[in-house]
Amino acid sequence: MKIFHIILRVGLGLMLLAFGLNKFFWFMPDFDFTGYPEAEHLFNALRFSGDNPDAGKGYIMKMVGATEAFIGLLLVLKKWVPLALVMLVPISINLVMFHSMVNLPNIGPALLVAVVNGYLLYRNWDAYKALFR
Amino acid sequence: MNSTFTTILRVVLGLALLVFGVNKFINFIPMFEMPPAAANFIESLETTGYAFYLVAILEIAVALMLLLKKWVPFALVLLAPLTFNILLFHIFLDVSDIWVAIVIFSLNVILMYKYWKAYRPLFQY
Q: Within the 4-23 window of chain B, which residues sit less than 8 Å (CB to CB) from chain A?
C-alpha cells in the first residue's frame, strides 16, 4: 500500500513538472481546440495575455506553469507535501472546470490530476485539521 | 487572534469581499476602463460562462467565513490564490486600479501572518 502512495505522489509530481515546464518551453504538441472557440479564446488569452509586445506578455501561463513545476518538484522530493497539495487545489479545480465547460475531449489528464490530488489530500488530512479550528 | 486590530482587519476584508462578490451578480459597481489586453482577458473569462460566477461564489463564501469568524485560516488559504491573481492582473494588465488590489492582498497576507500557527503543519515533511 505504501508503495502505491509513493507511486501516486511521484507520478503526480512528474506529471506536473512536465506540464509546468511545457508552459515555458512548449515541447509537447499543442492541444487541438478546433470547434471550441471559447476554449481557444481563453487559452490564447492566458498564453499571450495580449499580443501587444508592450503589454505584460503571457504572464498567466507562465505563472501557472511555474506553480505546477514547483508543486511537482515538492511532491517528487517529498518536501512540504501538504502545502504542495493545497496549492494544487485551485489548479485542479479550474483544470477540470475548463475542460468540462469549454473543451470536453481533453478532460482525461485533468480528471486524473484532480482525482489523485483529492486522494492524496484525503490521505494527508491530519495536516489540515489546524485550518479548521 | 482576539485583538481588536485583527478583528478590524478581518471584518474589513470580509465586507470588501462581500461587496465585490455580490457585485458580480447584481452589478452595482460600474465597469471601469481597461487597456485592450486586459479587456481581452476579461472578455475571454466571460465567454467561458462560468469563471466569474466561480470567483463570485468563492468571494462570498470566504466573506461569510471571515465575518462569522468560522474556519478563518481555511478561508484565508482559499482566498490567497484569488487575491494574488487579482494583484498580478493589475500589475501586468491594468495598472490604473491597482490600489484596491494591493490593499486586499495585504489584508490577506497580514491576517495569514496573524494566524500563522494554523499553517505550520502544512510544512511538515
A: none
